[in-house]
Amino acid sequence: MVKGIGIDIICIEKIRSLWENHRHRLQGVVFTEKELEAVGEGSPTQAETLPYRQALLLATTFAAKEATVKALGLPYSTRYELADIEVCRSDHQVIHLSPSLAALARTKGIDRLTCSIAAAGQYASAVVIGESL
Predict the structure, then answer these.
(1) What is the DSSP letter of 90?
(2) In what order do the strands lie in the sheet with 123-131?
(3) Distance of alpha carbon 87 from its chain centroid, rounded?
């Protein structure tokens, strides 16, 4: 049964600019090491200017994290970092949570989070559904 739904949209260029100007603050706080590895060859940690494909992958990941926050219904007072939410790319996108966020999700009856991501033009978006099994 569906327990929560979240949606987010972000401009890809905004993520590119944030990465190029603040990459050291985003590593480990917003993006996990696995997520950065998934961005692919020529890691964004090495590039001066972030190529479009890498910016797109970071933007869809960011949108998925923000949509997850909404699907979980996290109050603003909840202490977490976006790196507590990990987007795992495979045949379908699955969201993994840190132990503390997973415990919070269980209190809301959410056992699984699934995600659909999309991009068109200059925007990336994601929808996350929280389900009870």
Answers:
(1) S
(2) 2-11, 123-131, 112-120, 93-97, 85-88
(3) 5
Collapse the DSSP code of 71 into the 3-class scheme (helix H, G, I; strand E, B; otherwise coil) and give the result: helix
- Are the C-beta atoms of 118 and 67 separated by less than 8 Å? no
pTM, two decimals, is 0.89
Tokens of 115: 């995600």
Alpha helices in the chain (DSSP H): 12-26, 33-38, 52-72, 99-107
Q: What pLDDT is recorded for position 43?
A: 54
**48: amino acid identity, one letter:** E
**Residue 12: both structure tokens together:** 């890809």
Give 10-residue mean pLDDT values along the chain (133 residues): 97 92 87 85 57 91 96 87 90 86 95 93 96 93
The number of residues making up the chain comes to 133
- Separation between Cα atoms, residue 12 and residue 61, nearest integer Å: 11
